[in-house]
């Protein structure tokens, strides 16, 4: 059987077409009558004939079939033909066998793992993908490192149970790593809490020191009862000049006038409380802090002295509005 004429570029000369198959010669041979035929075509024709005659001129073959001339072969081999595997490349007829066997990407080839049992034929362009998917490729067990073919890997792992052992070891490693991370995080939190507590204590101590220093500065600024008494100030520290004037306004006799004159001659105006009313004084006798608005009869005897004197004076004059 020859080659199809549609595979060749352009029109093919009639001298290159076999008269039996009407295709381009493939391995042409020449008869004794100088007619050319494809070797396969003429041999197939002789199988059904006892006497060998030329199919064209009916001449009896006296000699054996011979090869055509070299000139005819060179002209035949110079014909341009497309690859029979439909790769799209056009080559000379003489180069077609080498192209198909060595370079054509669509040529079917045997699997490289043919010796291990693979009987598939794959195109040359698909051989790399097949090597990654072939059931007879060599693989290494990820659990124990044993080398075997892919189709026997599952049998090996189920028989030796190496994969289960590896998974258990991996779980144990992950569990230990998690515990280490938890302990590290706890220790970090403890250190942070300790630092925060230290800072809070330092702030509390600093606040208490500032508060104590502010109290001392206020006491030094306004002074105590004994210091006011020693500096010729009024003995009635907690009574303002306006209160004394209201109490003794319109007094009769020499006692009232003398009391007013005494109260005014004792010293200047008594210190007024601040807007917040939280002025604190320190007693020089008992070393206690007190506020003027809380100076009552149940207080320290050193604090209630001016109040008792004031009430005794009011009783003698009988002009105090609080009676």
Radius of gyration: 64 Å
Please indicate the percent range of residues in DSSP E strands (runs of 2 or more). Answer: 5-15%
Distance between the termini: 151 Å
How would you spell out the order of helices and strands?
A: EEHHEEHEEHEEHHHHHEEH
Runs in which pLDDT lies below 50 for 5 or more consecutive residues are 231-277, 305-323
Q: Write down the overall geometry.
A: rod-shaped
Biggest β-sheet, characterized? 2 strands, antiparallel
Number of helices: 10
Structural class: mainly alpha
Mean pLDDT: 75
What strand order characterises the main sheet? Answer: 1-2
Considering DSSP H and I runs of 4 or more, what fraction of the residues is helical? 40-55%
> In total, how many beta strands?
10
Quick take:
With 323 residues, this protein is mainly α. It has helices spanning 39-46, 70-77, 96-103, 127-133, 153-160, 162-222, 225-230, 241-247, 253-266, 305-317, and strands at 28-30, 36-38, 80-82, 90-92, 108-110, 121-123, 138-140, 147-149, 281-282, 289-290.
Give an account of the 3D structure.
This protein is mainly alpha-helical and 323 residues long. The chain has 10 helices and 10 strands. The protein has helices spanning 39-46, 70-77, 96-103, 127-133, 153-160, 162-222, 225-230, 241-247, 253-266, 305-317; strands spanning 28-30, 36-38, 80-82, 90-92, 108-110, 121-123, 138-140, 147-149, 281-282, 289-290. Strands 1-2 form a two-stranded antiparallel ribbon. Strand 1 and strand 2 (36-38) form a beta hairpin. The longest helix has 61 residues, at 162-222.
């Amino acid at each position: 059987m020859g080659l199809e004429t549609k595979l060749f570029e352009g029109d093919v000369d009639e001298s290159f077409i076999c008269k039996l198959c009407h295709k381009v010669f493939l391995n042409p041979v020449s008869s004794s009558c100088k007619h050319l035929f494809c070797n396969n075509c003429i041999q197939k024709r002789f199988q059904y004939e006892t006497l060998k005659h030329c199919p064209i001129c009916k001449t009896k073959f006296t000699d054996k079939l011979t090869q055509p001339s070299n000139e005819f072969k060179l002209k035949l081999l110079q014909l341009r033909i497309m690859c029979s595997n439909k790769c799209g490349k056009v080559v000379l007829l003489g180069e077609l066998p080498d192209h198909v066997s060595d370079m054509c990407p669509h040529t079917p080839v045997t699997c490289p793992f043919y010796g291990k049992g693979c009987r598939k034929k794959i195109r040359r362009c698909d051989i790399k993908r097949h090597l990654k998917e072939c059931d007879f490729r060599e693989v290494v067990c990820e659990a124990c490192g044993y080398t075997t073919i892919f189709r026997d890997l599952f049998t090996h792992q189920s028989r030796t149970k190496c994969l289960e052992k590896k998974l258990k070891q991996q779980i144990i490693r992950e569990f230990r790593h998690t515990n280490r991370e938890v302990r590290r995080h706890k220790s970090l939190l403890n250190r942070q809490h300790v630092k925060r507590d230290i800072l809070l204590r330092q702030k509390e101590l600093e606040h208490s020191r500032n508060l104590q220093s502010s109290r001392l500065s206020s006491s030094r600024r306004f002074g105590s009862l004994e210091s006011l008494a020693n500096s010729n100030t009024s003995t009635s520290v907690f009574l303002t000049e306006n209160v004394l004037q209201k109490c003794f306004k319109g007094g009769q006799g020499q006692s009232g006038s003398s009391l007013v004159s005494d109260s005014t001659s004792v010293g200047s105006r008594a210190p007024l409380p601040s807007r917040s009313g939280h002025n604190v004084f320190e007693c020089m006798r008992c070393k206690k802090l007190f506020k003027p608005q809380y100076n009552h009869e149940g207080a320290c005897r050193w604090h209630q002295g001016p109040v008792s004197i004031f009430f005794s004076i009011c009783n003698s004059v009988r002009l105090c509005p609080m009676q």
